[in-house]
Amino acid sequence: MLTRWGIIASGQGANRIAFLYYAKYRNPAIEDRVLLLNTTPADLRPEAPLEQIFASEPELRKEFERIRRRRVCIFGRAPSGAGNNWVLGEREAMDDYDSIRRYIADLRLRSSDVLLGITTLGGGTGNGSLPYIIHRVRRNPGQGLERVNNFLALGILPYDFEGPQRHFNAICGLARLLRYEGEQNAALVILVDNSQVERVLGIRRGQRAERYHRINQEIIRTIHLLIAPSSRWSRATIDIADYYQLPSNIGTVHFTPCLSLGNDPEVLSLEAMLESASGNAMAPVERGTGTMAYIVVAAPEERVTGGEITQEDLEDVAREWASRHLAGEGVLRYTSLVAEPGRSTVDVLILLGGFSLRGIMEKSLEKYRRFRDSLGGGGDLGSRIDLERVARLEEDLRRYIALTEERIERLRSGEEHVHLREWGFSDL
Amino acid sequence: MNEYAVTALVVLLTLGVGVALLLTFGISFVSYLAVGVILSVLLASLVYTWWKSKTDRTVVLLKIEILNKIKDAVEVLERNLRAASEMVDVEPFMEDLAGIKRGLISRGFFTGEFQINEGKIDRVTLTAIELESRKVEQQLRSLESLVVASYGEAVAGRMQELLDAAQMLVEGGFSVREEYEELRRVASMPAASLQDLLEKRRRGEEQYGRLVERCIREAEFLLTTAEGVADVSHLREELERVKREREKVESVYRLLRVRSEVSSYLTRPFLEAREEVLAYLDRMLELSRGFERERQVLRELRERAKSYTDPGQLAEFRSIRQEAKRLTLELARAMAREISVLDEELRKLGRAVEGTGAGGRISELDPRREFREFAGSALEVLTALAADFSRRYREVKIARNYPAVERIISRKLAEAGRVSAGELGVRYAEEFLRLYSESHPEAVLEGKVLRLKG
């Protein structure tokens, strides 16, 4: 049976991505299970975050009208929203959780369905609310809502040039998506870095007006490929549990997409396509530190049925690719070939996981420290950034990073199967 | 409506007068008067009804209509019986039909010339005519069912005879498979009435006639072709006889004999024609790479040409040559269209377009020319178009894919300081390496290996 997916997008940037994906792809796995969350300034005009989209594609306004009443939830009471303060965003979500819960319940999800939460990590609303909502829905969803264990998160990291507060928010947000109140939070955390995507897309200064649009397009294609292996056209299904179960047990659950789109199968071999994708990681990844990879290849149906591209070929090429690109050949690897009707090119998604977070932390740590050190513990009770909590988050993240580095080292040194043996598996 | 009003008025008047008389003259007088009045009214009603029926023409028209129907049915059956008389003896049925007609005349419904006797039908009630109509209808139905049983068998026999003859012609190598299938369809048509049977036979004969006509034309073509290599005058005479007696099933044997004998003189022309067409189609298939729709049609035509192995099928190559000419033009136009699309794309990609293309040469292809002549010039034009197309296709593929391949080359160079064409895993690898070396001064191409300088 087709796996059903739902999307919860909190904050303006995430709203745009989720709405675009819903309106453009009309994926039968999603149907209309998309929920846009935002705080009070959007109360009177919930379409405000989407005006940019409507300006270039006015026909999408109709699509928005279809979901406006049941799929747009405005929460919180602060007159100016969260104001880039994640603590306030979280507080608003806590206070209005009953209201948010009713909207989520209206998505009519079953415990076996998958939820994908989307947020930008530099802001206050989504960054504050989404980790809390994931925590509640996975642990204690409340009346009328089934526990949804398959809750994945997609976090978008701020641009390199953005101010210290945004990077402070990003580090705190990342820590809370990974762990919340001492427990693993999202089943899987997919990270996308705005500046890195710009570099990959080769967006130059003159093109920056369209930067958001192009980055969003890349993200929605990632979402589409992420869902594709559970579609009926898939030649080898990657079950949703495959995505997160073993990473959870191994202890490292962060991933980043590496995309290579519109490949010409007449010119590029599968090897070249994977090679091309691995150079397009959507977050800074130190080469050879990835420990896990899910590879999804969406190819023209006639080339798959004609035997030009097969699941077996893909497995062989993926094995060869892993031996050259993953730490110690990696510990997990799934591949799925999707034969999509009506397409003429090949899209490749490598969901690369367990890599060293050094690249991501490097660009934010200094700004993070600067902002943290400037905090004096003032502000209203509801919006005050509690330094002790920040210290706890920092500690959680340090431990997570240490675990990740240890796993990479073990794999590099050839002890790659230790964790699976501890899990009870015999030799792989 | 008038009758009801008059009756109501009379009743009311009678009651009123009755009451007045009762009061004036007493019960006994009124009783006599009432009985007298009622009797008078009844009498008046009868007189009125008789008068009304005498003046109303509707009933007369109805009688005429029924009798017309009887007349038509009798005449149709008579006509059909005459038509059926070609195959079965219909005399006894004709006599029965004449008996029915005589009965109708003797009862005064029809004149001796079997025309409706309007002068006499006034004296006959409508009911009587309706009863007569039903009786005659029943008699005609019984008579027709007897004819259908006899004629149906004869028609079935004739149809089988035509089918057998047609099948022999098909098996004898004449290209009349389609006509034969149509004849089979006609022969299997259901026919419940005499009219249906007559129609079925007519269509069967017509279809068989078309089939034989096609065989005659085919045989004529073979004879004309063979006249150049042998004396076939005796066969020509046979064919003339077939033309005169084409409706006879026996002509089939003559046709088969003509075809079989003439075929023995045609082996060489047949093999030449077959070889010529197949060679042309093979070359077209080679030149049509990248045009899958056209190739599919070409492959089907080639299979058809290849399936003809009997010299008697020489005539088939006329239509195959025509089809090959049509496909040549179709392919040439498709190639020219695609070349122009690729030119446009190359312009958009900022690449120079070499030459003006061979599209203008399509006008050299004249399908009215003899096949050999046409094929020679067509292959020249197609070769030029195919070369134009493949050059542009390659250029577009390289231009479109260069950005992706460039990134791969850069990464590989950064990793190992060198990359060979084989390691790239892409088509046109050497061309990509050459392009890279031209736009990246830090890299140098040595044979099929690109290296970082220094």
Question: TL;DR?
Answer:
The complex is a heterodimer of chains A (428) and B (454). Chain A has helices at 12-25, 51-56, 60-71, 86-95, 97-105, 125-139, 164-178, 194-201, 211-227, 240-250, 270-278, 301-305, 311-325, 358-374, 387-412, 418-422, and strands at residues 5-10, 34-39, 72-75, 114-120, 151-157, 179-180, 183-184, 188-193, 254-263, 292-300, 332-340, 346-353.
Provide an overview of this structure.
Chain A has a domain at 5-246: Tubulin/FtsZ, GTPase domain (Rossmann fold, 3-Layer(aba) Sandwich). Chain A has helices spanning 12-25, 51-56, 60-71, 86-95, 97-105, 125-139, 164-178, 194-201, 211-227, 240-250, 270-278, 301-305, 311-325, 358-374, 387-412, 418-422, and strands at 5-10, 34-39, 72-75, 114-120, 151-157, 179-180, 183-184, 188-193, 254-263, 292-300, 332-340, 346-353. Helix content of chain A is 45%, strand content 18%. Chain A is built from 16 helices and 12 strands. In chain A, strands 3-2-1-4-5-8-9-12-10-11 form a 10-stranded mixed sheet, with helices on both faces. A two-stranded antiparallel sheet of chain A has the order 6-7. With 428 residues, chain A is α/β, with parallel strands linked by helices. The longest helix of chain A has 26 residues, at 387-412.
